[in-house]
Specification:
The protein has helices at residues 98-110, 165-169, 179-195; strands at 20-29, 34-41, 47-54, 58-65, 69-77, 82-86, 89-91, 112-113, 116-124, 133-144, 155-161. It has 196 residues and is an alpha+beta fold. The strands form three sheets. Strands 4, 7, 8, 9 and 10 form a five-stranded mixed β-sheet that branches. The chain has a three-stranded antiparallel β-sheet with strand order 1-2-3, with no helix packed on it. Strand 9 and strand 10 form a beta hairpin.
Length: 196
């Protein structure tokens, strides 16, 4: 079963057999991370645990200023012990629509307000262990706006010419190391190439 139409040219790939969830328990509930442990009975009859990181969903924003600059930020990420340059992004609040979250996160993280906003893609970030769904938006005509920044958000913001984007997504030392940022910029560059 698929939640999207099959693209033209893609062969019909049959649905493979899959396991049946026969039990579910809470594994861990933290401030940000929630884990459940499912017991799955496979078609062979064997039972296996499946640990699932539950996530409310997230957004990333390819933000273009009126001067056609891409708004990027550098932020330290504790899990990997280093800073990465990437797109503004964040987690959905309870009951929040992805487009509202995109507008909120862009303003909170960068001080830029989106003019128009359009979805570029929505995908599962790593479906082998999490149900997180990331939605990437294109925000155009972005302009600076007054905002009270969270003092705990340690972020450096820069507007980079869109013409620098090909180097940011190409293999090499300048390539971004953040998946959502690579995907968002590649989608924008592909769209722009099709328009010319």
């Amino acid at each position: 079963m698929s939640d999207v139409a099959r693209p033209a040219g893609l062969p019909d790939i049959p649905e493979p057999p899959h396991g049946e969830t026969i039990a579910r328990r809470r594994g861990f509930d933290g401030a940000w991370v929630h884990v459940r442990v499912d017991t799955v009975r496979l078609p062979s009859g064997r039972q296996r645990p499946r640990e699932v990181v539950e996530h409310p969903g997230a957004v990333a924003i390819v933000a273009l200023t009126t001067a056609d600059d891409v708004v990027l930020l550098r932020q330290f990420h504790h899990p990997i012990g280093r800073s990465l340059v990437g797109l503004p992004a964040g987690t959905l609040e309870p009951g929040e629509a992805p487009d509202a979250a995109a507008r909120r996160e862009l303003l909170e993280e960068t001080g830029y307000a989106a003019g128009s906003l359009r979805e570029l893609a929505s995908y599962y970030t790593s479906p082998g262990y999490t149900d997180e769904r990331m939605t990437i938006f294109l925000a155009t005509d972005c302009a600076t706006a007054p905002v009270q920044r969270d003092p705990d958000e340690l972020i450096a913001v820069a507007a980079v010419p869109l013409t620098a984007s090909p180097a940011l997504v190409a293999p090499g030392s300048e390539q971004l190391r953040d998946a959502k940022s690579l995907i968002g910029l590649l989608l924008l560059l592909r769209e722009r190439a099709g328009a010319s």
